[in-house]
Amino acid sequence: MVAVSPDGTQPPPSAAAGPRRSAPVHVDALTGLRGLAALEVVLIHSAGRSDYVWLGVEGFGPVCLFVLSGYLLFRQWVPWLLGTGARPGLGTYVRHRVMRIFPAYWLVLAVVALALPVSRPLGTDGWLRAVLLGQTYSPGGLRPGFEQVWSLGTELAWYGVLPLVTLGTALLVRGRSGPVRARLVVGVLLLSVPLTAAWRVWSSASGRETTFTVSFWFPSFALCFCLGAVVATLLGAERAGFLRPRRLVALGSDQVAVLLVAVAAVAVSTSVLGGPDGYVPASFAERQVRFVAATTLALVLLLGCAVATGRGPLVGVLASRPAVAAGRWSYGTYLWHLPVLELMSREAGFPAGPSGLAWRLGLTLAVSLPLAALTYRYVERPLSDWSRGGAPPWRALRRPPSEPAAADPAARTTSASQPSSPAPVHVRSAVPGG
What we know:
This protein starts with 22 loop residues before the first helix and ends in a 22-residue tail after the last helix. By secondary structure, the protein is mainly α. Helices cover 62% and strands 0% of the residues.
């Protein structure tokens, strides 16, 4: 799917540390992993309106996409931080990020405001926040049927934080050897552990998470982005010959071990340790168990895709054509599915039991996936190509559908596929569930 790119998103063959990683397969698998996370979001939201609220792994969707975003975006900067490559252009980075997230979002925002009045922003300030993805900075900013945009605001914050972190870290590592640089970069990124822990403790102890959306702000999920960036740094340092993260590589290379850890994380997340199922109150400890389990699951699946020795069971599934297609359309699926589900719930009744869930989930996918495919074809891909110096969108639209877009895996794998209900954080449903 992805060709070698000079911006550091994929090392040239001469820089690879042996035959362990096959770039096209693994990029496809990462795209498939994004698709898996997006579809899990749809399942969570569909099941949450049925008799089967226990279906899905709560929190996995947004956390997985945040981890992927951390990995894919930060690895463009790793060669520069390690002293083995040039600094990515900041203007290019900003242009890519803006074209990646805003045009498709603005399109869906406009359509939803027309088709679903209850989802319209309130007042001029509400519209301003909605246009700029600042809904979570107001108690009433997240509108019914469009609440999933909380994660876009969190993702946007990461886009702004990442260059600042890399520029500051570059000053810290200047003049040092490659191995020292790598360790210092990892150390800086791991400062996200106390940051996220302190923010979560403070927001719960202060009571603000029950009246405000502070639990959706970037500090609550800084750990997810930065752990993905740690993986990118360690693998980049290994390719450069600076470090030898044997345990990390051994785990990622063993597809069976990856799946066993993933199953264990799912078991912990869905156990009594994670609190009761459904939209009912959960304790602070139970919510953190869910968060840690979802983060573990996302990290181990990332490793299984990025470090695998071949097409094992995980890579085989996630690199399949349906999974890759779901990954390409994941942002559109994220944007469209919840308004579609809200509109159907208001206009049509669904029976109880498994048939009700099947109809709700099936119809949501039947409408959302074609809309997502069209959004990708006519909005996301042309504008993404244009942002990288390709043909203007009005010319790119005439390109045959079978022609692949230019390679930019980081631009296409963001956390823009990870919605959740914005209910107060003292209930389980408010731990981002999709």
